[in-house]
Amino acid sequence: MIRSWVFSGSNGTEFRAHAGLAVLRVFSGLSMALAHGINKIPPSEGFVQVTAGMGFPLPVLFAWLAGLAEFGGGLLLALGLGTRPAALAIGITMAVAGFVRHAPDPFRGKELALLYLAVMVLFALAGAGRFSVDAFIRARTRRTSAYW
């Protein structure tokens, strides 16, 4: 039993794989929204200046987009609602943070943005998993469309 647990993988249909996805999704989504995004809604003048300094043409708009991606996208990710688009929006924001904003920094300075980026790639590819609003909507849609 221990050997099979240690050396087995998951085919993606197991309860424990979906439970793990749910834990990661809720924690990373709430962490993104409440530790990073909430402070950027509305964007401060300093954040707008940082955005302008990265060369974005409409810095106020792009600062709002980044803040909304982090806060709104984080909340959507935590719920598992629109998970793939939310992960894509957060992932793009984290790619800019990791590869543009923190480009000159040592790895330690960009590690968090890159870690969030990796997590967002997972959710963009794998989706939210069984324990999500997306899965509930998908199941309801299948049941309703069976009547048509």
Give a written overview of the molecule:
With 148 residues, this protein is mainly α. The chain is 75% helix and 0% strand. It is built from 7 helices and no strands. The N and C termini lie far apart (46 Å). 31% of the residues are buried.
A few lines on this structure:
With 148 residues, the protein is mainly α. Helix content is 75%, strand content 0%.
Number of strands: 0
Radius of gyration: 18 Å
* Total individual domains: 1
Biggest β-sheet strands, sense, barrel: none
List low-confidence stretches: none
In percent, how much strand structure appears in the residues?
A: under 5%
- By DSSP (H or I, 4+ residues per run), the number of helices equals 7
What is the helix content?
Answer: over 70%
The end-to-end span amounts to: 46 Å
Shape: globular
Mean pLDDT: 92
Summing up helix and strand content along with how strands pair, one would put the structural category as mainly alpha
What string gives the helices and strands in order?
Answer: HHHHHHH
